[in-house]
Each structure stands twice: as C-alpha cells, then as structure tokens.
Design a protein that fits this description.
The chain has one domain. Helix content is about 75%, strand content about 0%. The longest helix has about 35 residues.
Length: about 220
Amino acid sequence: MSENIIENRNIVWVDIAKFIGIFLVVFGHTLSPFGLLKNSTFFSHLWDFIYLFHMPLFFIMAGYLYKSKTKTDNYKKILYGLLIPYLIYQIIYLPFKAWYLFLIKPYLGYKILGIVSGAILGDASSTPISIPNCAPCWFIMTIIQLRLLFNNINLNIRNLVLLNISAIFICKFLFINNINLYFCLDNTLMAVPYFTFGYMLKSYTKKGLRAGGGGL
C-alpha cells in the first residue's frame, strides 16, 4: 500500500472521530440551557458521561494530526492556523461581550480591562485580573501551547514519558492546592497525556500498516 493510501485511510478515521466529538460537544451544550440537567437524572448522567471523554477525544485527535516537521514550518502553522484566528475571533467577540456585561451592570470601566485581559489570557473562567471574553477559545490556546511544547522537545520515548509524568504530578499538585494557572496552562498540562497518546497512536498505526502491507 502506498503512503498516500495509508494517509487517506487515517484521515477518514480521524474525520469520523472529529464528527463524533463535535456532535457530543453540541449535544452536551444543548442539555444545560433547557434545564434538562436539573430536572432529569438521566440527562444529568448523560451529560457527565459525555464530558468524561469528549474533550480528551479532541486532544487525542490533535495529537494524532500533529506532524513533526521543521521548527520553522511548525511555528508558521501555529501562527497562521491558530494564533491569528484566535486573536481575530477574540477581537470580533469582544464588543458583544462588553455589551452583554453592560446590560447586566452598566459599570464598564474595569470590566473592559477585564475582558481584554481575558481575551489575551484565553482562560474560560474569571480570574482576579480577567473576565472570560470568549470562553471556548481556551481550547485553541491549549492547542497552541501543546504544539509549541512538542515543537521544542526531542520527541523520543524517554522524553515523552518524562513529560507526561511531570505533567501528571504538576496537575496533582495544582489540584490539591486549588491553584489555577493563567494562559490555560493547567488545561495544557492536563491535555499532555491525551495529546501524547494521539501522537504515539499515529506513529504505531503507520508502522503497523507498513509492516502489514496496509491490511490489503
């Protein structure tokens, strides 16, 4: 089997997984506004089940799609494919968030600074210095950091094991001490094992397909 056929089969599998993940995100978010979580034990348990794995699934897919090219190429992909769209979306969303806050309580001075800070930090929850501007953008911020991290380490087994052990221990420390980091760094640390799993899954899948002739 040629390299292109192997790659196409992988893309189809990833597209199906992404579709499932996107559907679960949309479905999960439709449960809360209609009061279904409070009024139904079934939907409450269903929501818990969906949120147990749907974001890890996205991080696994992100790791699977990560390509270890030259640092320059990876930096360009981060800049044009993630950072610039992130900033554009935050800028577009900012006036709508300001208007929403004004309707709630018309004292916008510190709130404007708060949502600007929130747009820069990318956090999904309020901090002492920020108010979330576009909360879902935390995912993009996390992916940016994961790609920067993987772009600046030697991706061998030893380094990946050390990276994941370190991330898990730091997350445990943060959780025990109720510490939240800025710039979604705590989310990034929690996502490291899933991103790594996706990256390793792709490596072993390619090796298996080559060794077995692609299963044909």
